Every structure is written in structure tokens, then in C-alpha cells.
Amino acid sequence: MAIMTTTSPAAFLPVLEQIAEEISRTPGRGRPADYIPALAACDPRSFGMALAEPDGTVYGVGEWRQPFSAQSVTKVFTLALDLAREGDELWEHVGREPSGNPFNSLVQLEYENGIPRNPFINAGALVVTDRLQTRTGDAAGELLAFLRAESGNPGLDFDREVAASETAHGARNAALAHFMTSYGNIDNDVPVLLDQYFRQCSIAASCADLALASGFLARHGIRADGSRLLSRSQAKQVNAVMLTCGTYDAAGDFAYRVGLPGKSGVGGGIIAVVPGRCTLCVWSPGLDERGNSVAGVAALDRFTTLTGLSVF
Amino acid sequence: MAIMTTTSPAAFLPVLEQIAEEISRTPGRGRPADYIPALAACDPRSFGMALAEPDGTVYGVGEWRQPFSAQSVTKVFTLALDLAREGDELWEHVGREPSGNPFNSLVQLEYENGIPRNPFINAGALVVTDRLQTRTGDAAGELLAFLRAESGNPGLDFDREVAASETAHGARNAALAHFMTSYGNIDNDVPVLLDQYFRQCSIAASCADLALASGFLARHGIRADGSRLLSRSQAKQVNAVMLTCGTYDAAGDFAYRVGLPGKSGVGGGIIAVVPGRCTLCVWSPGLDERGNSVAGVAALDRFTTLTGLSVF
Amino acid sequence: MAIMTTTSPAAFLPVLEQIAEEISRTPGRGRPADYIPALAACDPRSFGMALAEPDGTVYGVGEWRQPFSAQSVTKVFTLALDLAREGDELWEHVGREPSGNPFNSLVQLEYENGIPRNPFINAGALVVTDRLQTRTGDAAGELLAFLRAESGNPGLDFDREVAASETAHGARNAALAHFMTSYGNIDNDVPVLLDQYFRQCSIAASCADLALASGFLARHGIRADGSRLLSRSQAKQVNAVMLTCGTYDAAGDFAYRVGLPGKSGVGGGIIAVVPGRCTLCVWSPGLDERGNSVAGVAALDRFTTLTGLSVF
Amino acid sequence: MAIMTTTSPAAFLPVLEQIAEEISRTPGRGRPADYIPALAACDPRSFGMALAEPDGTVYGVGEWRQPFSAQSVTKVFTLALDLAREGDELWEHVGREPSGNPFNSLVQLEYENGIPRNPFINAGALVVTDRLQTRTGDAAGELLAFLRAESGNPGLDFDREVAASETAHGARNAALAHFMTSYGNIDNDVPVLLDQYFRQCSIAASCADLALASGFLARHGIRADGSRLLSRSQAKQVNAVMLTCGTYDAAGDFAYRVGLPGKSGVGGGIIAVVPGRCTLCVWSPGLDERGNSVAGVAALDRFTTLTGLSVF
Fold this sequence. Notes:
The structure is a homotetramer. Chain A has one domain: Beta-lactamase (3-Layer(aba) Sandwich). A five-stranded antiparallel sheet of chain A has the order 2-1-7-6-5. A two-stranded antiparallel sheet of chain A has the order 3-4. In chain A, 46% of the residues lie in helices and 9% in strands. Chain A is α+β, with helices and mostly antiparallel strands. In chain A, a hairpin with a 3-residue loop joins strand 6 and strand 7 (278-283). Chains in contact: A-B, A-C, B-D, C-D. Chain A binds chain B through residues 1, 95-101, 108, 117-118, 232-233, 235-237, 239-241, 243-245, 249-253, 255-256, 259, 261, 275, 305, 310-312, and chain B through 1, 95-101, 108, 117-118, 232-233, 235-237, 239-241, 243-245, 249-253, 255-256, 259, 261, 275, 305, 310-312.
């Protein structure tokens, strides 16, 4: 197997095309999330994949320009936005260790006095959102502005129907927020925090949008406009947290199969980073039992196998 | 910061020398493990670090030729030896997800019906040893022969005093083994298994030995003599498991700070892999509260910072 | 030791006087609950004890007519009021097993899918209150009316300052309520439920009031006015739940030392039942580390020792 | 319903006969324990029940003279024998709180540093056996001698086949014993302890034997020969532990339904105590999902309903 070293424009397009062709012949796709109607209505056969070069070139296959519900994929960006403002103090309020338990678990939170294990489990993302909210007064607005700027897509927006559905089914997250409040680890009122949190989750974006928006992680912290969001060390750290904690209780399996920092969402999206080289976003709404896109993981697995671009 | 790209012989020696000098000026070193006398007697000021190039060149600083108790560092090699024989069937008996709990925890084992979370917690290493024992009749002997061959050091050996002490303090591991037996996940008699396991842990080896012995992980599965131990994919997988699970309950922190696949032991040793580039072994017996060498983690942190060789 | 068999009026008064005298000479009293100001302000030297005969005769020692915050002692009455209406269907929504964990634990709730272990842990009391609220539209009002009728004290009332303080410090209970909502085990809106719950806890009543109000448990289900609240079997069941679950994580210890069905509250009150014979209420605000009144448990321990009236 | 107050000889025989008749018409019986052949071979339709008066009169119905495997019922006697020698010091090594978890759970043991919650879960019984072994050199022999003396049955004995089967399937108990050894809470060598423990469990005794042997608990600590085994207070305490912890994870349910101190075994036996009045033993090998005899619990439930002899 040869490792690709070319960096000519759209160099990986044939690889993406081969992957799309292989995926199209694969029967099983898992099932879309069904806890809210908007997600349940997705066609599990949908598939899109985009790759963004560090210079902003983006290309893709399948439904790579189709917006979908970004959900937990947004947790990466919220983390980066808060880390950029707050720095290491954040880590006194949320850990960076894998959770070793399903993503909603309250158990570990109780044993560790209200400090979530990492920023990508729901409890941790609530803490990060809470802190960004305190610093900005509008965490969701900050996130939206960032995603629009990095993707160059001013039409990117919240999906109010999804946000409303999330709120209506948000008892578990409300429990987490109140629980951490009881430990003094949440500053804002719970209803305000949940509103910010669910609006973030509701953002609709395409593979192209999210691959571009992730670009700062391949560029060691530099935004699309050349300004610095994160220090080189911080960008490395976000990638590390993605690799060890980015795919719920399957982070080890994802590292083992794909070998790239990645973050999934229950909308079926996954972003992945090849540090220094490129970022990817793949979308297919059918999920496995651990909440990760079946075709999405398979596509990324094929990508690192075909290109040799695993970090390992 | 420049990223080093040279591959000339001993290219990293100045970096190692700088690290050793910095470490020598650092006061705190943690405390040696004290559960057995042989470990408790170690001087926490001891420090050695070795780097092995893929071609077998090895060099180092400090006490890099001083044998120490390899302890859990050996779990990587036992895993590789069993995986080479058994392939993916192994993963039906041990997981590859981070444990999210202290390394001796029985809790997760109970909730997951006797299947340990990964091969690097004690329960998982017992399973791997048990399976290698079933396939070879002498797991510890296989491991010793492999380490001697890869390091080119025929004097490398078990430390019988350490093995005897481990056995005398082995109640927790005996509990784990009996517990997994009750789930049908251990084949050999518990006393036989524990004898094999503790002999493995007792192996005394130097930084030079272990850096060389890890070389197959930088060479994508190829042994020192050019023969293949693991497939390219399997070597990638072992690195992935090291990154996500290699440093007890601090795997996320290690990935965040160091950004390399690594495996630590309570003897104070840590091995780390720069895939395709080199392997490292650092030793300093003072441990932090999670069981990892304080100076060892600091040295590897400095190494990736100075060279830019983090996988992220 | 003789077992008292007399039933003449005020037969136990000398026993109560002896206990009060002994308690007055005991130095250590524990510390009042300090999570809300109204409880923290209590004098740990306060002590009162009342005994009610089945015929409604009541007498006591110390501050036995001084109102205090009934807190979790009210859980017994809410349970009885709901059980009277709903019968065994209640037990599909709350268990009757000891919790084996501190009284606020979310862990067990998660492992048992939102069904609390028993009606006396906070989660279980929230479920009982929720169900009584659904059936009556005013759970707290029902409880207050019942306590006034049984105690013959029309001045018995909620303490609005305490209720407001509880609400302000109610994050943990809010978490529990939302969490059970996520399992479909709560019917009412969480803020409505919490308001009902905290008003119940806030009720101020004296030892005399609560000893009298517990009388139906000594009379096998018969209220003060001769009407039946619970069947004989249900009254027995409430006593059984009190004995096994009534004193947080110290139920075994309470059974072992006192040997009577009892229910404690963090206000320092404890009620106890001698089935067929009498009911007791003791109050002293200093708590042990498990949340039970130090002098209260000691007084009841002495009572069963002096009278031989333990159920064992 | 009238409460029986007569104490004439065999006064309860008609009640037992009615119960046996009712049980004989009940279809479901649960399933015998199947982890060892000797238990699995039992006929789930078997049923026997015996009642012993404090004066040593014993009578029964059904197969009340048929020996069966006493199993965990013996834990009561071992507890009493150790408590008689050691007194309260025992409670520094084993708790007296309900476990709130299945009877083999290691979780709680880990969180509580090797101190079992109570003497009737397996871990706790191992600790009690270990301590009796240290004090006598032959815990199982002491137990056997006691049971022979109290029952007046010199033929009562260990069942060597059962003990051997238990040992062969004893991995879980071996794990518990090694685990507690690691916390310093076991004094004897694990194989010696397990041999003592399994021999105790293997004792074959009839309902008549066990009802008589329990008599000291109805007689407030006095043995059949009039000598004192336990103080009045200690006898009360053993009854309290039986009520709160005697039927695995169903202690609350047992208290709720039966309302008597009781102790069950997986052989299908249950002993129960009416303090000051009588002791009962019922046997039927079919178990419910929590390990208690289905017909046994039903028979005791009927007994307290028909006689009003619940402690509540």
C-alpha cells in the first residue's frame, strides 16, 4: 500500500469517489436517531462526504452540500471557542479523560463531584456552553457566527423546529444541568443554559460547511482568515480530546479502525482531522447502537486505509 | 517552532540532552511504587531516556542502559504476541475502549460480564496472558524470547525476587482472575495464570532494550530481523489502543500533553511510538497519583513540544 | 429485665423522664443540618420526646410541644395518603427495597430505569408526591389537612421561609425529578412538583403533633376519628417500609439498635411505631453523619431497652 | 381477623395444615437453583414446613422431616456463633446495612474498602466464617456441632458431594475472598477459608432441624439446654439483621409481605422468627428471580396473615 504524499488540488477526490461507490453497495446502514421527529424522518441511505484542504479548497461526493442536523459535532467548535477565551482554567471545570460509560451517564458525574469527564459527553458540553455563555452572553450566537465565517456560508442557521423538539425531550439534559448546579459547576440559570445548548445542537450544516469550519484544527489553530484562534498547543489538545473522547463510548474502536481525531453527532455527521493535511466531514443518518453513523465510520475507515493517513 | 524532518543518525540526541538537562533541574519527582520492596527501594531521582530509530540505531541520555522493572510496559508486547497468533478473535474476550476508572476496578468488569474494557488494565492483561498461555504453553517464556531477540540483549531476564513479591501481594489480581473465571473468560487455572502474569511483570530491562523492542510499532509491524509480526493494520491498532488506554486513568491527559501512543508501568518506565519515525523509552521511578512516571511524562511532553512529532 | 405490660394512662412517662435526664447529661449532639439557614440556626441542645397512646392520650418531656421542621418525617404521611387512594399500583412506580446508598444517589436510579428503590429516598418521595398530586391536585394541601386533623392542631402549617430556602437549594431534587421524567416516571411539570414537595418538607410540627398523627400506624390503619385510612395489611406494609428504609443509609443500624419502624428527617425529628401499642416522636436537631438525630436515635434506643418494646 | 394468643401445644398445626393445602393448589413454584447438579435435581413441587415452640416442641406439615441443602440459612448460625465469641468487634469487619444490590456484587465492596455491607451477603458471610475460623480452628465443625445439639439430631451432617460441587463452581466466592484479602479483611488462606465456607453451605438438614436450631432467636439468646449463647440484646440484633438483610435483594419485599425476621438459602429453605413466640422453617426448592423460595415466601406470608403474628 502506498501512502499518498501529493498535495495537488482535489488530490483525494478519486479516493472519495471510490469510497462513495463502495458505500453505495453496502446494505446495512443502521437506524436514524428517533427521539425527535426531525431526525427520525431522515433517509438512512443518504450519504455525503467532503474534504477541505488547509487552503480552503473543498470538494466532495454524494450529498456533500446537503444540510443536516449537526448535533454533537458542534461540541468541538464550542470547546475551541471557549478554550480560546478561557485557556487552561476550563480544565478545572471539565476533565479530558474518556468516560468509559454511555454518553448520558450520571454515575461518573456523581462519583466525581459534578466535574464531567470530558467536554464531549453531554454533561461536559453543558459546562463548556455555560462558561462560553458567561463570557459572551450568547454562546449559540457566537458559535453560529464562527461557523458562518469559517464555512463562508452566511445561510447556515439554527433549525428552530429541531431546537424545540430537543427542548421538549430534554429532561435528561435538564437533570444533568441541575445536578451540576448542585455541585456549583454551572453558573447560568438552567433554562437559559438549556436554550443555548439546544440551539447549538440544532444547527443545520452540510459536509462542506463542517469540513471547512474544522479547518483550524488541520492548520494548528489558524482560522480561515489567517488569524489565530488557538495556540498550536491548544489545537493539538483539541485533536487529542477528539481522538480519545469524540465518539461516545466507541472512542477506542474509532481510534482502532480510523485512527484520526473525530467527533460524531446523532444527526449522522462525523468530522475528522488529518493534522497538517486536511479535514473531512461525512454524513449518513443511520446510527449504530453506540450513536455513531454506520456508513460514516465505514467511510472514514476506508479513507485512512486507502490513503495511509491514520495518525498511527 | 520548526518541525524536525531530518533523519540523520542520532539526529535527536541534542533534544534528549536538552530534556535530561531540564529534568535534572526539576525538583518534584513523585514517589516510587511502594507495594513491593524492590520497587520502593528505587531512587526517585533516577532518570534515563532512549530513542531507537527504525534501523535499530539506539542512543540515549542518563541511565538509559540501567535495567529497571518493566511491569505493565510488557503488556504491549504480550498483546502483540497474542494478536499475531490469534487475530481479531481476541477482541471477543477483551475490549479496546478506555476504562474510565482506576486500573484495578472490578466495577466495570461486573457490569460488562467479565469482559475487560481493554488489554492494558490488569483484568485485560490477565485475559491476554491467559490466551497466549493456552496457545503457547509458556506465555512468559514467549515474551522473554521476543524481548531478547528484539533488543539484542540475551541477558534480559525475569527478576525472581520481584515476581515472588508480586505473588505475595497479588490478592487483587487473584480476585480479578477468579472473577473472570466465573464468567468463563479465563481458560487456565488461576495459580498457573498468575505465575505467568507476575513473571512477565517482573522482567528487568533498560530504556535501550525497551525502545528497541518497541521498534516493530514504528515499523508498521516488522520485527528487527525483517520478518513480519503484525500486519500494518494490526500495528496501527496496537498504537491506537496504546494512545487511548496506555496510561491507566490518565490516557486522555497523556494524549493531550504528549500526543503519542504510549504505555507506562509502575516501575517508572514509559514507552512511546512515533509511527514511522522512532520509538522512545523513558524511565524515572517516581510516580504521580495515577501511577505514571512524573519525570517520564514530562520528558515525553518536552520531546513532542521540541520536535513537533506529536501525532496531532 | 422486665417487659412492661401495663397500659394505664401515661404509663411510660417515668421512662420518658429517665431518658430525658440521661440525654441531658450526654455531651455530644451532632450538628444541625446547615444547607438552609432556618435549620442551621437550631440549637443542638434542644430535645423533646412525646408518646401517643392509641386512644389519643399524648404526653412528653422536654420541648415536646415546640414546633420544628418536620422535613422527611412527612414522607410517611404522604406515602400513606397515596397508598390509601392508589393501592398496590403505586409499587409499579416506586420500589420498597433499602437503597444501600446515600439518600440522594442517582446511581441506583439510573441502573433501575428511573424507578426509585423506596418511597423514603428523595427520588421515591418525589414519585409519591407526584402521584398524590395527580390524584388530588394539591398534594401538600392534602397532607396539611391530614396532619391537622390527626394532631387536633389547626395551627399546624407550612413554613414559607423554609420552603423558599429549600427551593433555592433544590438543584439536586430538580435533577432527580427531571431524570425520572426522562424515564416517564413523573407526570406533573417539574416546577409544580417541586413546589408541592418542598412545601410538604417545610411543615412545622411538634413532637406531640407528629406522635398523634402517626397514631394510625399503631392502630393498624385507623384514623383518630375511627375511620379507616389504610387496610390492616397496608398499615403493616408502611411499618415494614419504615423499618427497612426509614433512616437513610442507617436503616440496618436503626433496626439493630432501636428495633422499631421509624422515620427521620434532617430537621432532627424521628417518629417511631410500636405496633398495637403506641407511637413516639423525638426531636433534637443535631445530626450524625448519615443525617439522623444523634440524641433522637439514642433516646429511642433507650426506650426499647428500658421497656423491652422492640419488635424483635 | 383475630390474633392468636394461645400457646397450647401444637396450637398452630391447623394453620400449617391450611397453608399446606393452599400451597398444594398453587401452580407456579419457580425453578430450583441450577448452578450445581445436587440442587438442580430437586423437585420444585416439594414442600415442607415446621414450627418449633420455645420449649422445644416441634411439628410440621408436608416434607418437614426431609433433609435439604441448608445453604445460606446457615449464615445465621455462623453469625451467632462468632458474635457470641467476639461481640461488637465483629462489626468493624462487616456492616449491618442492607446491600441494595444483588447478593454477589463486588461493586459495593470496592466502594467500601473491602468491608461487606452485612453478614448475609456472600462477602459478609466469608468474613464471619474467617473470623470464626481464626477463633476456633474449625468453623464448619463448630457450626455442625451447634446444629446437632440444638436440633437434637446427631445424624445431621455435611453433604460432601454438594461441598465438592460448590468448590468446583466457587470462582465468584474465591474472587470475593481474594478481593477482601487485598483490603486486609481476611485472615486465613483463601483455600482454607473457602473449604470451611462451602462445607457450611453443604449441610443437609430438615425443616424440623432448622426450626429447632433457630430456637435461641425466639428465646432471646438461650440455647435448647438453657445455657445462654447470646445476650438478649445480641439476639435482638441478629433478628434485626435478618429482617433487614436476610433475603438477598428482596429484604424490603419480605418485610412488607411477611413481616418477620427471616433468612433464605438457594436450597429453597427459609427460617423465620416470631420473637418470644416460635420459630419456623419452610422448604420448597423452586426459587424466584431473586433467589428466594417461591412457595416458602408464600407460606410465611400466609402464616402471618392468618395468625397476625407479624412484628408490625
